[in-house]
Amino acid sequence: MGVGGEAGGLMGAVLRPGDWVHFDGGEHQVVALAGTSVRLRSSEGAELVVLASYLMVSPGFGLVEGAPLPAIEPMGLLDGLPEDAVAAAKQWQRHVVEVETGLPPEAGPGTKARPEYDPVARSLTQRIKAKAAELGVSARTVERMLARHQRQGLWGLVDQRATRAGETTGRADARLVAAIQEVLDAKTHTSTGTRSRLIRRVVKQVEDTYGPGVVPLPGRTTFYKLIDRLATGRHAFGSAVTRRQTANRPAGAFTPTLAARPGEQVQIDSTPIDVMVLADTGLPVRADLTIAVDVATRTICAAVLRPVGTKAVDAALLLARMLAPEPMRPGWSNALRMSSSQLPHQRLVDIDARMEMAAARPVIVPDTVVIDQGKVFVSHTFVRACKRLGISVQPCRPGTPTDKAIVEATLGSINSLFCQHVAGYTGPNPTRRGAQVEAVWSVSQLQDLLDEWLICGWQHRPHDALRDPFAPRRTMSPNDRYAALVAAAGYLPLTLSGEDYLELLPVKWQKINAYGIQIDYRTYDCPELGPWRLQHSGVAAKNGLWEIHYDPYDLSQVFVRTPDGWVSAPWTHLPMVAAPFADFTWRYARRLTAEAGLDDTNETVVATVLDALLTRAQAGPADAGDALVDVTGSRITARTRLGAAAHRPPVLEPADPQSSEPPGRVEAAEEPGDALTGTVVPLGIFDVEAEAERWI
Description:
The structure is a single chain. By secondary structure, the chain is an alpha+beta fold. It has 5 domains: 67 residues, SH3 type barrels, CATH 2.30.30.60; 86 residues, no CATH class; 82 residues, no CATH class; 224 residues, Ribonuclease H-like superfamily/Ribonuclease H (Nucleotidyltransferase, domain 5), CATH 3.30.420; 190 residues, no CATH class. Helices cover 34% and strands 15% of the residues. The strands form 6 sheets. It has a 5-stranded antiparallel β-sheet with strand order 4-3-2-1-5. Helix 10 runs parallel beside helix 12. The longest helix is centred in the last third of the chain and has 21 residues.
């Protein structure tokens, strides 16, 4: 039984009864051969029968004190060599085979060996000397080629200079090659330049390191070819984005992210959407899109649009939207109802009554959320919200977007399947942007369009990554996948109350002074704070400070946690401001106050400037000199209004005159969608000019 084939005309080793072989970490003797089976007896006397194919591929198999098995020629490598190198190797093979057998490989039947190569009359040493004299080389050279042919066959006779990796650089100096590679590495994160710029930098670096004229430099054409060979796969002279992505690609193997049940892993990310939107003032602005994608079902659990500058509270409220059913909106087709979809609507309604009038989007309670290192997601507000909801947070490695590749790919799918069909589409980069991009939709309108598209265009669309295990050619939609997995994994509703909204807001720890609460030179006060003024909160870890929650999109009030419940405290200067404002609006007003030479720590002065800013921004510039200030103020105002409109802040319940509860108390709503409303006290707007005329 042969254990090897012919290699260059040599008969391979043959396995015969009586031979000793290495197998299973020991030595065994071949007792008998029967068909494809081999009976072995170990040195201890134990016998076993194995298949010949299993025996020959086992690790360490070989004949004891026998010649090594001949190697199989790497034909793939031979095909990649230059033709002259292969021809020279075959010519050497002809001579080596003649030395070993007496006849060249092409000899026909009945051909007699030449006298100097007759293995019967001449020894191997004599034949080697005869071949050396014939070729004009040393006997040592023939011996070396003979040994290499016995080990590697034809591949061993190939001139190794033709297989070296240095072939890509030709005869270029190694110092020059190292300098080119170093400059190529340094330009990974710089703007794309030309090859001539790279050549100039390489020459300068070589001369600074070794001195002028020390390292030989090739001609211009050869220099260009050398750079192209070394820059292969780097995108050194192409897209800067592609170059950075290629350099940032992990060196290890790519492994898919798998999840066996809905919510096992949810990936969250935020990016600017490629659609211009309109602000209330008519200014076009950009918006950020934050989405959460379930890995098991590819369901987009929630998608939130905000003006550029997503805050931690936006990411926290995204979690709250994930845990509540998507309600049907006026004007939506009945086909978008959950009852009309593949989702197990009736069984879900029996568990969670909120599903009765819900749209066809599953409610998925996440076990783990995967986030990047963005300050929005690693903030205390977001982490605290996840902790309250019982969600584990798994941060990605810095600079490794492949750790959440599914949500990254989903954002690209939204761009191609939704954004490019919306008026105001800007394209992914300026090279794909039209001459005029007109914003048509507001943030709230675009949010409604996106919500409707997610239900009809995404949840019902077959996804290539979702396959039926019993019919791999059949793709499934996210809703189909959810319906299949929820039957096995179950569903547990997590009902959120209106009070949970307050828990998700950012927190500050402040003292309740006799005049109220001061935050960033703003004072908040109400009668309900009376019992707690100048009192210790009981939280020793915070030195007796009180827990204050605030909405960064609406600074008109703050929420104070007291032993009796939540208390809403309005801003004392709120009647002076005629429009809503956010934290960034307040900071901009303080900057304008300081630039005007006024005291930016005086609350009344800043409130006056803030009101003037918002009023002037809405009215437009009075003259060319105010154009810059008005444009900046308009952008600040537009961003504030968009944030407040899309944020959907809670409204406090109006106080019952017959109730014993104080009017400023905040109560939890019965349903997660219920808004919290409060008493609105109509107050006049302070008109500075009218007041001045009255005084005069």
